[in-house]
Amino acid sequence: MLAIDGGNSKTDVALVAGDGTLLASARGPGINAHEVGVDQTVLILDAVVKQAAAQLDNRPAGPLARHTVACLANADLPEEEAEHATAVQAQGWSESATVVNDTFAILRSGLPDTPGPHWGVAVVCGAGINAVGVAPDGRVTRYLALGTISGDWGGGYGLGLEALWHAIRAEDGRGQDTALAGYLTAHFGVERVEEITIGIHKGKLPDDDLIGLAPLLLRASDEGDAVARTVVNRLADEISVMAITAMRRLDLTALATPVVLGGGVVTARNPLLMSGITGKLAEAAPAAEVRVIDVPPVAGAALLGLDHVRAPAAAASRLRAAYGISRP
What we know:
Layout: E1 2-6, E2 10-16, E3 22-29, H1 33-36, H2 38-53, E4 65-72, H3 78-90, E5 94-101, H4 103-109, E6 120-125, E7 129-134, E8 140-142, H5 155-172, H6 180-188, H7 193-201, H8 214-222, H9 226-249, E9 258-262, H10 264-267, H11 271-284, E10 289-292, H12 297-308, H13 313-322
Parallel strand pairs: 1-4, 4-5, 6-9, 9-10
Antiparallel strand pairs: 1-2, 2-3, 6-7, 7-8
Helix pairs in contact: 4-12, 5-6, 5-7, 8-9, 9-11, 12-13
């Protein structure tokens, strides 16, 4: 199996034997097909695949693998998944290929390795935020996940913007005092928050630097900062409503539905955030089983690959052991 996790910040590739043995792995730059297009995206993936293939002692003649599963952060629509799948298949890495959004990898990582349908709801809150739901009968529900224009809020980038918004308003007097102002100036090594804003405005600071502010927001919340706690409470509401809405669409609120939470913001396990999420889920879906999964998404892609070839549960267990992942 060839497993690919293509994220905004990095791309991970793993070659996995049919018995779950991890044969090779490689890491490369992130991808964003919305910015560079599908053809350039596949070129980036191909370079990382070749890095992994070079580690094999006996590379097979012909296709590198039996099946490829590529979980891509920016394959947000079914038609985008299909377009990427065509491009991936054309590379000849494997006999067949599947491309899905990376939320499916997080969902699979948090589900048991039992025969039969793998179903539940996953919410990913990392650089961005997204969710997917799969019913026992195979029905799928998802969100557009295109940012503000599709009703999304949250994720590391959105939280960074929120932290900067509150910090500069505190500094210039329009907003409530908050420890975020001091945290941000210390983080960037400047004297005033306005220097950060001007740096972004003039292109001296990339927008992506805002993603790194999410841990500061969570820290301020832990320390009792009222402004930060308001933002964290809002994030708990947002993550909860994505999960609950997905369950309602699929008629899962009365079932013991696995709700898998992943992504760096969630796996920080901020107490206020987690209590808000679990509390709201308990009200709307009392039987739901909340699981926080801190695993490399490429492992979820590999598990999907093992499912595709109907590998035994022992193969999934061996793969989980290679990544240090416990069974759900």
